[in-house]
Amino acid sequence: MYYSHLMSAHPQLEQDALVHANNAGNGPFYVQSYDKGRKLFLATKVSGASNLGQRWGLRYNHDGVVSLHDARLSWRVDANGPPKLLSLELWPPGSNVQEIMTLEQAMSRLSRV
Predict the structure, then answer these.
(1) Which uninterrupted H or E stretch holds 72?
(2) pLDDT digit string, tens, across residues 8-44
């Protein structure tokens, strides 16, 4: 599900998330191929404590209480273009998911047939 308030407040959200996912340590923590390797589903995370998370307002102060969320993003990748953002979900912080490969490495796994 897209959070419409994030999309309207941040029209470059998908592009910013893709740039973030290309930075070291921010690549996918989940990769699944399908359609004989011609398509991939990826999952990445934007921490509320990161610069991008702060720009998106994932860390905010409400009446003196600081709330922090992480964003988990699902992507579809195929050989026809850049990754496509499928969903963005907000979760309480705390999952310590680790990059399993860079976004570039994941994309190099696509079959070109």
Answers:
(1) strand 70-78
(2) 667 788 899 999 999 999 999 999 988 888 899 999 9
d(CA 30, CA 113): 23
Angle at 94 between CA 13 and CA 52, to 5 degrees: 25
Let me know the angle formed at the C-alpha of 52 by 94 and 91, rounded to the nearest 5 degrees.
30
Angstrom CA distances, 84 to 14, 36, 67, 69, stand at 8, 19, 29, 22
What number is the average pLDDT over the span 57-75?
Answer: 87
The H or E element spanning position 30 is strand 30-34
pLDDT for res 63: 83
